[in-house]
Write a structure and sequence with these properties.
Layout lengths: L15 E9 L3 H14 L5 E9 L3 H14 L2 E6 L26 H4 L6 E5 L3 E3 L4 H4 L8 E5 L5 H6 L8 E9 H6 L2 H11 L7 H10 L3 E4 L8 H4 L2 H7 L8 H9 L3 E3 L16 H8 L14 H14 L3 H29 L1
Parallel strand pairs: 1-2, 1-4, 2-3, 6-8
Antiparallel strand pairs: 4-7, 5-9, 6-7
Helix pairs in contact: 1-2, 1-12, 7-8
Length: 348
């Protein structure tokens, strides 16, 4: 296992950066905003190719992606996902997540053979600074690199067979796609998902963690920076890992001061009316530079955020109590999300 703290002398220069997103038509404005932020903050890279594995992307959104690419003289290639059953010939339940998230488990079957390394990003991310250091990070014998999510429960890690290993968030993944293909890791991950009856709490993320185990490198939090880093202090997060493996205080603090990729994880997203996300202005900044400028906010959230802000204010001095409450509420959130996804499906 490798982490950026001991990799200074192992640089792996690569001339072209390849980036991957997955999305459906509804999320295109968010993905376009993320792509714009990459183009804006990585002018030091000669070539950037963005691949989008999409499902039912409208002609108008395809045209917007092309306009965005032309504006920055970069390349955006859309790949149709098609029917997921072609890749997952067994029953699965994504438990409230949109099924398009599973596309990242079959990226080896969808991306061109010429792509040997890829930076996968969730559609709810924006980039704030150069990614050259991340792109050149040597993965060594690891299949991919990701950032540790310390708030995942010990029980869940034990269920995945990784009680003594860090669990990573799959919203940002640096992948050695050549190794993934040669050693058939995609098939291993899908088999793992099948063995768990197609029902994992966080389907793609749990499958990647459980199947890869100690074939994962750990990247610093600045490359997947989200709300836990202002809700919970360093000491609490390190304790959540039972001190088996976590970032040094130096790496943690540097990430707090200079985050590179913001991940709008959870329900507090900058495109929802009434939210006060501390990086909301950054999302709006890059949205305004895209063909989706003026994309309307999601209504119906103001009451939610009113109580959310009160809750966070009260809980600030009590991180352990906050964690226990949120951990118990997450299953209810997932049931609600599953109902919303079903309503969306029924409207089509």
């Amino acid at each position: 296992m490798i982490n950026l703290e001991n990799a200074e002398n192992q640089k792996n220069e690569v001339s072209e950066m390849n980036v991957l997103y997955t999305t459906n038509d509804i999320f295109c404005a968010k993905v376009g905003t993320g792509i714009c932020s990459i183009f804006e903050n990585n002018s030091d890279l000669a070539d950037i190719t963005v691949y989008i594995i999409g499902q039912e992307i409208s002609d108008s959104n395809q045209e917007r992606f092309q306009r965005l690419a032309d504006c920055y003289n970069r390349t955006i290639e859309l790949i149709d996902l098609g029917n997921l059953k072609h890749f997952f010939p067994f029953d699965f339940d994504t438990l409230g997540w949109n099924p398009v998230i599973l596309a990242r488990l079959v990226l080896d079957k969808l991306l061109p053979e010429s792509v040997e390394r890829i930076l996968y990003l969730d559609g709810d991310t924006v980039n704030l600074r150069s990614l050259k250091e991340l792109w050149e990070f040597p993965l060594g014998d690891s299949v991919l690199g990701g950032c540790i999510e310390a708030t995942v429960s010990q029980n869940r890690r034990e269920e995945l067979g990784m009680a003594d290993l860090p669990y990573i968030n799959s919203g940002v993944l640096l992948i050695n796609l050549d190794k993934w293909r040669r050693e058939h890791w995609g098939d291993t991950i899908i088999s793992y998902y099948r063995e768990h009856d197609g029902r994992l709490f966080a389907p793609d993320q749990d499958a990647i963690n459980g199947a890869l185990l100690d074939h994962i490198a750990y990247l610093p939090p600045k490359y997947n920076f989200y709300n836990i880093y202002w809700f919970y202090p360093y000491r609490f997060l390190k304790k959540r890992m039972n001190d088996t493996f976590y970032y040094s205080k130096e790496v943690f603090d540097e990430s707090l001061e200079h985050p590179a990729i913001i991940h709008y994880l959870g329900e507090e997203r900058p495109w929802r009316a009434g939210n006060h996300h501390r990086f909301k202005a950054d999302y709006q900044k890059y949205l305004n530079l895209t063909p989706w400028k003026g994309d309307a906010e999601e209504e119906g959230w103001k009451t939610y955020f009113f109580f959310w802000d009160i809750f966070n204010g009260i809980m600030r001095p009590f991180p352990a109590l906050r964690y226990r409450i949120i951990d118990h509420l997450i299953p209810a959130f997932m049931k609600w999300r599953k109902r919303q996804l079903q309503k969306e499906t029924n409207r089509k």
